[in-house]
Amino acid sequence: MGHxxxxxxxxxKYSWEEPGAHEVADGVYRIPLPMPQDGLRxxxxxxxxxxxxxxxxxxxxxxxxxxxxxxxxxxxIGFGLADISQVLVTHSHRxxxxxxxxxxxxTGAHVRLGLGEQASLCLTRQHLTHFPAGLMDRLVRHxxxxxxxxxxxxxxxxPLDAGDWADPDSxxxxxxxIELSERSLTAVSTPGHTRGHMIFYDPEAKLMFxxxxxxxxxxxSIGFEPDPAASPLGDYMSSLEAMFRxxxxxxxxxxxxxxxxxxxxxxxLLDHHDxxxxxTLAAVKDGACTGMExxxxxxxxxxxxxxxxxxxxxxxxxxxxxxxHLDVLAARKQLTSQAxxxxxxxxLNTEHEPLNYRQAGINT
Length: 364
Ligand SMILES: [Zn+2]
Fold this sequence. Notes:
Helices cover about 35% and strands about 20% of the residues. By secondary structure, the chain is α/β, with parallel strands linked by helices. The chain has a seven-stranded mixed sheet with strand order 1-2-3-4-5-6-7, covered by helices on one side. The two termini are about 40 Å apart. The protein binds zinc ion (ZN). The site of zinc ion (ZN) has 4 residues, from loops.
């Protein structure tokens, strides 16, 4: 497969979390930062050395001593926070974005984010809640009112601070080429995980800074944001297909070991969603008809946990994920959806035309 200059893939699933500045390609350092009380355990930011300064991919989560860990890690390679000229942020989730804003406050670094995140940032500042109203309403419409109730009664996290969610200095658009002194990066729009998610592609070094779009060990959540798209999973699968129009690269993900193949992992994620689509369709065949009922019938995580064994937060993610799969099946005309008085119901589409009929071009 041979990515030139690529370091060996870290085999241990957790060793990527060890603090420090780890050189993962020429002039590229991976720096894990803390994520207290979060199942993801750590978030990696990448420091790119460029003409004596640093460009950061993602900022980390402005929490606890994260900025201190970043500073100590940069010191290992002879740099300080003041050397960061700009932060390119893959998406507006708190573990990627909030510390970019904090760094700007400290050092004046220029912060850039995908234009598709604008509405979510704005809504986050308006509502300052961990459980965005748009998303919660969607869950209720799909029969998961009890899960929403549990979440609202559960342990409360400290309120959000509007200052963490300030707008970036500039918005990135799809295909924008960011010319640095020693490399050029292309911002590629990859909606799905969030609407405005961007990856940063270095075709010359064959590196892909993939944020949460492609993760090596887990499947990213889909459409967990205040302003979800109509079909987050449809968008996500298209964004995975788009990876094959770029060269195979060494993955530089935000969570997990770096160095895997972008093509191999995009293929594996597409295969995973094909299996989940088939399982979701089978759940409806077996009688499930709301998003909540389908989620309750499916196995969860690679360990096949039952829905009932998940905590309310993960149940919320699971229902959201199931709705995303149901909506792709509806878009493919395998299911129909009906908004009843209580909740949206899905049923098998008995009038579904075989796909080859349409592929033959008879229906134009
Ligand atoms: Zn994320």
